[in-house]
Amino acid sequence: MVVLAEYIWIDAYGGLRSKTRVFHNKDTIKLKDLPNWNYDGSSTGQAPGEDSEVMIVPRVIYPDPFRKNGNHVLVLTDTYTPQGEPIPTNTRAAAAAIFEAGKKEIPWFGIEQEYTMFKDGTPLGWPHSKARAFGGPTKTLGYPGPQGPYYCGAGADVAFGRDIVEEHLAMCLYAGLNVSGINAEVMPGQWEFQVGPCVGIDGADQLWVARYILNRLAEKYGIIASLDPKPIPGDWNGAGCHTNFSTKKMREGKNALDKVIIPAIERLGNKHAEHIAIYGTDNELRLTGGHETASIDTFKWGFADRGASVRIGNETREKGRGYLEDRRPASNMDPYLVTAKLFHTAVLDAPRRQSFLGIHLTKGPRKSIVGLGSKLKRASLGR
Ligand code: ADP
Ligand code: MN
Ligand code: MN
Ligand code: MN
User: Fold this and answer.
1) Does position 3 have pLDDT exceeding 70, yes or no?
2) Any ligand 1 atom below 6 A from CB of 113
3) What sequence ranges are listed for the domain GS beta-grasp (predicted)?
């Protein structure tokens, strides 16, 4: 028997890369048995040509839903220099340190990933351009009817690409991901899946693996699953990555809404610009204020308000405890940055006055966190 291990890592542009390693004479493999490996960083924008080796360290393994004829695995890794320092685009190392520092709070994340499927440059379900032999535009996109009937729609005239969405769900479940739902979104060809609730770093890890599975699956159909936050200009909501967040105190504390959740939201408001800076590229095209969620320059929170930056659902309001939804992150955001920043601002920042970048830790890769500062812009993803 052999075990195939697909080592996955994140490149300098927020894209996912992977390569296969064959383990001969094995029936199964455990995380601790998987060796570190390396790749050519000069081919992924992550290392100069003369010293191009980037080391990848296995962090989590999942059953491989693409190779079901055995105990094959997907291996999520993060990236280091040959000297063992996290490379600048390794946002996981910093996030893991932040979650480690505050693990008693037991932070949960539920992340809603919206995306748009394209075939031959056109979103699924969109009419092709009406080419004319003479006297008209031949390259403009044809337009479907306005948004309205597509969100959670059923029927061949409103739902496009469902087979892939269903297959993606089944594959994520096979891999052991804690996917909590899927739905069709407001634009034809646009869909959403949710991961969570997951504890700490696991939320971002699972989202990256779910994205990887989506890319690989779509590849089989010649389709691109785009994470562009405004894939088509005009009167469409765009694509976000709402991040739902709670701590044990928010979920269970007496009168947690007033005592913990609302003060946390106020701290988020005080650092609005810092958050927006790492919530994804091209987010200003989406957060205009005209299409759900407040404008990028404004911080506004509210109960059940989908026009707000941060929303508290009715259930949390009624029970007086629960979670908050940060609606600002763009579909292309880096979940390591977003979940760690949310946790840091809403919880760690307040009593202990730790800074996100220079966080005081007794152990852990402090250097990499300091180094993250100048790289934040680059690290927030654009595709
Ligand atoms: P929406 O109504 O905004 O579309 P969704 O149902 O798409 O919400 O997503 C909500 C997400 O929040 C799910 O992933 C869910 O698992 C997660 N969630 C539920 N409870 C909590 C909680 N206490 N803390 C964090 N996330 C939670
Ligand atoms: Mn949703
Ligand atoms: Mn949605
Ligand atoms: Mn939402």
Assistant:
1) yes
2) no
3) 3-84
